[in-house]
Amino acid sequence: MSAIRYELIKTCKQSGARLGKIHTPHGIIDTPIFMPVGTLATVKSMTPEELKEMDARIILSNTYHLYMRPGHKLIEKAGGLHKFMNWDRAILTDSGGFQVFSLGPLRKISEEGVEFRSHIDGSKHFISPEKAIEIQNSLGADIIMSFDECAPYPADYDYVKKSLERTTRWAKRGKDAHKYPEKQALFGIVQGGMYKDLRYQSAMELMEIDFPGYSIGGLSVGEPKDIMNEVLENTTPLLPKDKPRYLMGVGSPDDLLEGVIRGVDMFDCVLPTRIARNGTALTSLGKIVVRNATYQEDFTPLDPNCSCYTCRNYSRAYIRHLVKCNEILASRLITTHNLHFLLKLMEDVREAIMNDRLLDFKNDFFRSYGLL
Ligand SMILES: [Zn+2]
């Protein structure tokens, strides 16, 4: 039996977007969903209680980073990632592939796996598809990822084809090595770059192996947005209707909407938490750089249409002051707002799907956000 079950509730008559639920060992996730990223077993500056208050149902952690520090064996000793970080809702871990391949000259790829040097102390390591699963089995997340290669953009056809075929072989090896399929759902990752026929080939090969869910990788790697949307349009219809689809590493408000309209159920991105620490807020009226002098005497909230803890209690002028003085509270307040903003956006998206008006919702949102 699979660890998770996807329930399709309805399809938006106006846009084709999917409204659903994913039943996991740690609760139910309403989809489409945005997943906050907690790279090192912490969503930077937020406590699990605060994440629950904003109704986050699932967070993401990074296998590569946790393997490096504090090590998966230590987390296993602690009783797994949920216990270690005191989070009793769902967790998804990536496979580490993306980080390892991002190391550039520090890594060497072979059929067996990837040899690389640590970004921390230069020590030598080797991750194979089996090792990536072993680490994720120790971490114990509800949803885990196959070890894959995310081809860069641009990349030529032959390279992408070879890379995706190896990714398929690695996915098969990972599935064979997976120890707890009844507790952890292993997803296959569709690659194939920007080539329609290669995306098709990748999806078909992975579905042949059969996974409880499918990720779409290799997007948002520098390609123009219309190309990303086109790849999604060509890829999601190939995937099974009764399983979740996860678009990896995508999380700007406009990309979330475009992805949902093209049939995606799950998203993650460091964007809301990373830009918060640089003093930038996502608002219903577009992005604002709180540091700017414009806000020096602005005693209104970050977003006049937001009901989060930060917006209920603090002004732009106060938060700007904190940012200027490098106060820790600035990061916490803006992170709280940015995460709330994206989680609320997805809640509104789900309601719009329910009411068959997602395209209208998108137009209204884009106009307000300054994209139309
Ligand atoms: Zn707010």
UniProtKB/TrEMBL annotation:
Molecular function (GO) terms listed? glycosyltransferase activity
Lineage, top ranks? Bacteria, Bacillati, Bacillota, Clostridia, Peptostreptococcales
Q: Which gene encodes it?
A: tgt
Q: What is the organism of origin for this protein?
A: Acetoanaerobium pronyense
- Record key words, sorted: Glycosyltransferase, Metal-binding, Queuosine biosynthesis, Transferase, tRNA processing, Zinc
Instruction: Give the binding site residues for substrate.
Output: D94, S95, G96, G97, F98, D148, Q191, G218
Active-site annotation: D94, D268
What is the required cofactor set for this protein? Zn(2+)
Q: Which domain of life is it from?
A: Bacteria
**In its UniProt entry, what is this protein called?**
Queuine tRNA-ribosyltransferase
UniProt cofactor note: Binds 1 zinc ion per subunit.
Q: Where does Zn(2+) bind?
A: C306, C308, C311, H337
| EC number(s) from the headed UniProt entry | 2.4.2.29
Region RNA binding, residue ranges: 249-255, 273-277
How is the subunit organization of this protein annotated in UniProt?
A: Homodimer. Within each dimer, one monomer is responsible for RNA recognition and catalysis, while the other monomer binds to the replacement base PreQ1.
Main function? Catalyzes the base-exchange of a guanine (G) residue with the queuine precursor 7-aminomethyl-7-deazaguanine (PreQ1) at position 34 (anticodon wobble position) in tRNAs with GU(N) anticodons (tRNA-Asp, -Asn, -His and -Tyr). Catalysis occurs through a double-displacement mechanism. The nucleophile active site attacks the C1' of nucleotide 34 to detach the guanine base from the RNA, forming a covalent enzyme-RNA intermediate. The proton acceptor active site deprotonates the incoming PreQ1, allowing a nucleophilic attack on the C1' of the ribose to form the product.
The entry sums up its family as follows: Belongs to the queuine tRNA-ribosyltransferase family.
Involved pathway(s): tRNA modification; tRNA-queuosine biosynthesis
Catalytic activities: 7-aminomethyl-7-carbaguanine + guanosine(34) in tRNA = 7-aminomethyl-7-carbaguanosine(34) in tRNA + guanine
- Entry's InterPro entries? ArchSynthase1/Queuine_TRR (IPR050076), TGT (IPR004803), TGT-like_sf (IPR036511), tRNA_ribo_trans-like (IPR002616)
Identify the residues that the record assigns to the tRNA-guanine(15) transglycosylase-like domain, covering every copy. Answer: 15-369
